[in-house]
Design goal:
8-stranded mixed sheet; 11-stranded mixed sheet; alpha+beta; 419 residues; globular
């Protein structure tokens, strides 16, 4: 069969793109080797990060760099065996994180983040997923007063420049909100705009069911040998060849497998992360999503238990799991909160697809008509999936996009394209 659009990748970006194209009358085939929403969209903090106007920059503080280099940091770790392959994009990542470059990036990135809540709200209402949503923000907690004050100054700037709302909490405030904490924190920034999701994978599944209810089609299988034809595009899956007038690549960290044969050798790399669910001791209750910022992990009260998510591991996408950060984070988390037994048989591992300038790629491929991409969202894929899908559908159908997507164009990496 031939479709108007093939969407390769059924994470939150792909599913959202498929929904918005179907709403516009396009016939869509969504393709993924796995069940929708079971990869990167599944294992995350479950926060729609409206406050996230500042993408995660490469550390430029010497003390932090030394901690990471000596494997002392819980927030970030690297695999020495991966360095020959990941060093070039990491050097560019470091360069783009310079103060002057980063300021420009934040200015371009903030309008995209500003769409996040409204775009999720649309799909949450349409899919009947309100039961998964909590609308009380999350806490960025600090054990030391110095770090609290540094981040509080940034939070005030984000309010003044980008309208990001927050409250500054004292140690007493946190103790009242989280009476089962074992240690007293110096304080926290309470980001009040974001929504949190009790089961991120279930939310993507709800969006997928919405897509199917609209008549959207899905097929399981790895898309191979994507190629341009006289009539559009064709790709091979196990059941045969499928064709579309256009194709959208939303494969996250697997995007290079279909884009590189077409000449797009983008400087993508991954930050891997892990999570584990826990019970609690003595009936303890965690009431809020909280990042222990001085250490570098998150605790979230989800439907499957207390989810602990780690920071970033710079490694190759498919290398064997090395959940060292999880062990360090678990030790620190038990100091803070009475975690009980592990509830998962093994740590979950995922890979965040990243670009050196910390911004996603959204829009057309410059060398091929009818080829589009929505990839490279790093830490904000779950947050930006619906916004990205809507923007892609708008530009693909000739509408004016809600924001200027020029800063997210693929051709900013044109120097990496093959001839």
């Amino acid at each position: 069969m031939k479709y108007d659009v093939l969407v390769l990748g059924a994470g939150i970006v792909g599913v959202s793109t498929a929904i918005h194209l179907t709403r516009r009358g396009r016939s869509v085939l969504l393709i993924d080797k796995n069940e929708p929403g079971r990869e990167t969209s599944f294992g995350n903090a479950g926060i729609i990060q409206r406050e996230g106007v500042r993408p995660h920059a490469f550390p430029r503080d010497l003390a932090m760099l030394m901690q990471v280099g000596l494997h002392l940091s819980t927030a970030a770790r690297y695999d020495p065996l991966a360095l020959p392959r990941i060093t070039p994009p990491l050097l560019r990542y470091w360069w783009e994180s310079s103060p002057s470059h980063y300021k420009r990036i934040v200015k371009s990135y903030a309008p995209l983040i500003a769409l996040s809540i409204d775009e999720h709200a649309d799909l949450i209402a349409a899919s009947g997923a309100e039961h998964l949503v909590i609308k009380k923000g999350w806490l960025l907690g600090f054990r030391t007063e110095a770090k609290l004050q540094t981040e509080a100054a940034k939070a005030q700037q984000d309010y003044e420049l980008y309208g990001v709302n927050h409250k500054l909490l004292s140690g007493d405030d946190i103790a009242a909100m989280e009476p089962d904490f074992r240690i007293r924190m110096a304080g926290a920034i309470h980001w009040t705009d974001p929504w949190t999701i009790k089961d991120p994978g279930a939310l993507v599944s709800a969006y997928f069911e919405l897509y199917k209810s609209m008549g959207g089609q899905f097929t399981a299988g790895a898309a191979k040998n994507l190629r341009q034809t006289a009539e559009g595009w064709a790709t091979e899956i196990e059941s045969g060849i499928v064709k579309g007038q256009e194709v959208v690549v939303t494969l996250g960290p697997w995007a290079p497998e279909v884009l590189e044969p077409l000449g797009y050798r983008l400087p993508l790399f991954v930050k891997r992360g892990y999570h584990m669910h826990y019970g609690t001791e003595g009936g303890a209750k965690l009431n809020n999503w909280i990042i222990d910022a001085d250490v570098g992990y998150l605790l979230a009260p989800m439907e499957r238990g207390i989810r602990l998510t780690t920071g970033a591991e710079f490694a190759l996408r498919d290398a064997a799991p090395t959940p060292i950060q999880l062990g360090k984070a678990e030790t620190a988390a038990r100091e803070l909160f009475p975690l009980g037994e592990r509830l998962d048989p093994a740590p979950w591992k995922g890979a965040r697809p990243c670009t050196p300038d910390m911004m996603p790629i959204i829009g057309p491929a410059p060398k091929h008509r009818g080829l589009w991409a929505g990839i490279g969202h790093a830490h904000h894929g779950f947050t930006l999936g619906p916004a990205t899908g809507h923007l892609l559908a708008q530009v693909m159908t000739g509408e004016k996009p809600a924001i200027d997507i020029t800063p997210f164009a693929m051709d900013r990496f044109a120097g990496s394209f093959s001839r």
